[in-house]
Each structure stands twice: as C-alpha cells, then as structure tokens.
C-alpha cells in the first residue's frame, strides 16, 4: 500500500486538479493477469484512486485482458503487439463519452507496447480522441552499455 500511496502522491503533485477535473479521463493499463486470476492486481486503478481522492476525476478501469499471461518483466518470450491486442478488450463502461483528453496510465515503459495497444483500442472507438500517456517508474536504472 505504501507504493500505491507514494505513486498516487507523485501523480497528484504533477497533474493539476483543474486538468484532472475538467479535461481528462484516466485509463489504467491492466496487469498481465485476467480478473478471475488469483494473482490479478489492479494497482494502477488504486494509484489513480489514491492520487485523485476527493477530486472529481474521471477514472475508468475499462481495459482488461481475456486470459492471464506471464508479466513482461518475468518472461523472456513476451507477447508481441498483435498478440497483446488480440487478448485486450475495451469494456462497455466506456460508452459514456470521455472528457477531452484520454490519459493512459502505465507503471513501466519498456517498448510502449501496452500503451500502443490501449491507444489503438481507444482510437478505434474515439477516432478523434486526444490520447496521452503517463508512465510511472518504480526505480531509475542506469543504461547498460
């Protein structure tokens, strides 16, 4: 819970209340486990709830995966874009029009694949959407030579 509170505080520090309450719809990237999996973790939705507690934020946990996969950071054989796209769904609770800017939130950025899949699904439903990304890093690493 401490990591969620820390990440939430960081977001609240860098994203203004006015932007959050008037312009943005926030969409967390789902974890690698399906909702029915005992290892399912909706930590990014929790981070957003922590960040914007008491604010009129539009946070929509509308992306899900059809079946669990190994987490990218735990696997040598990662799903390619098309494989991830095939198992990711944009659920119906997104039927109410989002605000002007859709902000996709992820906790790690390696290749950008999860963001690109989410962007693709949202763009298919809302072709003129202004889609942006926020990426939370748990730690900074030195580049390897």
Can you give keywords for this protein?
alpha/beta, 145 residues, Rossmann fold, four-stranded parallel beta sheet, two-stranded antiparallel sheet, 6 strands
| Number of self-contained structural domains | 1
Structural class: alpha/beta
- The CATH architecture comes to 3-Layer(aba) Sandwich
What is the number of E strands? 6
Low-confidence stretches: none
CATH class placement:
Alpha Beta
Order of adjacent strands in the largest pleated sheet: 2-1-5-6
Q: What is the CATH topology classification name?
A: Rossmann fold
Could you tell me the radius of gyration in angstroms?
Answer: 15 Å
What is the beta-strand fraction? Answer: 15-25%
Which overall shape is indicated by the principal axes computed on the Cα atoms? globular
Mean pLDDT, nearest integer?
A: 88
Set out the fold topology.
Elements: H1 2-14, H2 17-23, E1 24-28, H3 43-51, E2 58-59, E3 63-65, H4 81-87, E4 88-90, E5 101-106, H5 113-125, E6 130-135
Protein described:
This protein starts with a helix and ends in a 10-residue tail after the last strand. The strands form 2 sheets. A 4-stranded parallel sheet has the order 2-1-5-6, sandwiched between helices. Strands 3-4 form a two-stranded antiparallel ribbon. The mean pLDDT is 88. The chain has one domain: 3-Layer(aba) Sandwich (Rossmann fold). 34% of the residues lie in helices and 17% in strands. The radius of gyration is 15 Å and the shape is globular. The protein is an alpha/beta fold and 145 residues long.
